[in-house]
Q: What sequence folds into this?
């Protein structure tokens, strides 16, 4: 038996499960229709996404769209949609381009999303208005066999850690998985094609749109001005390429059902770090309490910004990992060194520049030695003002380019010893054991 056959046996809901899921979704749809009818509000209600398309796995989320006439002002559309979510699914407010609610209905996870009922994807009022067209497109271009192939793609992406367009994953949305599988004609066909992808790969399912600059471009078949793969980061794309190659060479269920990563214990962390001879630094900020997706994007931005600062200042950053809870945002860095030498070479201007005399005047009494010429420039050996990684980052945090909502005044630094003794074991394991999920 091929691994895919066993995967489908595990992930495809039984007819009884499908009936229960669809029945609950239809019940919610009816409740929503009656809710708005009682209020005298003219809307159409439909569920979209994987449940509507028949590409869902077990324990799916349901996307119920409340479609308002275009004559309704956007503020009213949003307000009425939020009120319905609170009343129907005890929803809590989330935010994409505009607010929606997520909650539960008879044991089923539900996103209740207000949008406009537009007649074509050419007349979108909000970005979510195109979602019903996505549902219709997949339904009209697939059969049950191909939909099962889409299920395989989704489960593979989940197993290797590349599923989801949210900023923390920076990966492949469910719709992107569906269109890719449709475009190539199946799960294995997609893997074979992806094995030869490279940065800048462009895929045209229906019509090519304007030129786009992204690691992966797939023109949306219902809106050629949109890149369905816009959320995919280059690193995530490369992980998928590597996983596709390895699966085709050695098919295995672990790509779909990876073993959970075993966390290192404190002694193992200490022993591994001692063997590596590297140094660690933990940087934390207060959690600003903003929308989760915005927070995730800002943490990535901050991690990259601080990595760049550590590199520019000579600490030799190697790896980093981040996480957050309700109170703090945490980023741990592994570096070649966390203390710099007492002295360093400071480069000055080219000798032929008239103002180079100012450089010579400034450094004429330098206790570490007089300026000297090398490669046509004045240079001088000088004493560093700041030598440790925390000192340098603290002095440059205001101009480092971290996320705008992270409070610079809340930053705290924990050096190597404190990180090794008390640092987050999940993050330390991610750094010290960077194997892919299917390699555990």
A:
């Amino acid at each position: 038996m091929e691994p895919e056959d066993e995967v489908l046996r595990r992930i495809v809901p039984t007819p009884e499960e499908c009936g229960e899921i669809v029945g609950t979704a239809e019940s919610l749809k009816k409740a929503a229709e009656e809710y708005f009818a009682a209020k005298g509000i003219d809307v159409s209600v439909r569920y979209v996404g994987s449940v509507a398309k028949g590409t869902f796995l077990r324990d799916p989320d349901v996307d119920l769209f409340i479609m308002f006439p275009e004559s309704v002002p956007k503020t009213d559309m949003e307000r009425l949609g939020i009120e319905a979510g609170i009343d129907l699914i005890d929803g809590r407010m989330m935010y994409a381009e505009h607010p929606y609610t997520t909650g539960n209905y008879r044991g089923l996870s539900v996103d209740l999303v207000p949008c406009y009922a537009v007649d074509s994807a050419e007349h979108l009022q909000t970005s979510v208005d195109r979602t019903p067209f996505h549902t219709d497109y997949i339904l009209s271009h697939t059969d049950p066999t191909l939909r099962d192939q889409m299920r395989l793609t989704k489960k593979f992406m989940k197993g290797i850690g590349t599923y989801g367009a949210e900023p923390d994953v920076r990966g492949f949305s469910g719709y992107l998985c569906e269109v890719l599988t449709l475009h190539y004609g199946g799960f294995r066909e997609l893997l074979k094609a992806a094995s030869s992808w490279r940065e800048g790969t462009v895929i045209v399912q229906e019509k090519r749109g304007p030129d786009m600059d992204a690691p992966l471009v797939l023109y949306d078949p219902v809106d050629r001005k949109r890149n369905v793969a816009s959320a995919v980061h280059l690193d995530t794309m490369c992980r998928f390429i590597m996983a596709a190659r390895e699966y085709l060479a050695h098919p295995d269920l672990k790509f779909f059902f990876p073993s959970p990563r075993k966390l290192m214990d404190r002694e193992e962390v200490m022993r591994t770090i001692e063997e590596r001879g590297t140094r660690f630094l933990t940087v934390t900020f207060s959690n600003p309490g903003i929308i989760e997706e915005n927070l995730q994007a800002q943490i990535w931005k901050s991690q990259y910004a601080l990595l760049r600062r550590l590199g520019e200042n000579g600490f030799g950053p190697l790896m980093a990992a981040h996480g957050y809870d309700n109170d703090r945002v945490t980023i741990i860095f592994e570096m070649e060194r966390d203390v710099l030498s007492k002295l360093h070479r400071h480069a000055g201007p080219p000798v032929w520049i008239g103002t180079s005399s100012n450089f010579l005047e400034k450094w004429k009494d330098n206790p570490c030695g007089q300026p000297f010429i090398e490669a046509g420039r004045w240079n001088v050996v000088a004493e560093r003002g700041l030598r440790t990684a925390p000192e340098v980052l603290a002095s440059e945090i205001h101009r480092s380019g971290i996320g705008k909502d992270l409070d610079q005044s809340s930053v705290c630094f924990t050096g190597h010893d404190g990180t090794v003794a008390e640092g987050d074991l999940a993050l330390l394991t991610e750094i010290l054991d960077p194997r892919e999920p299917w390699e555990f």
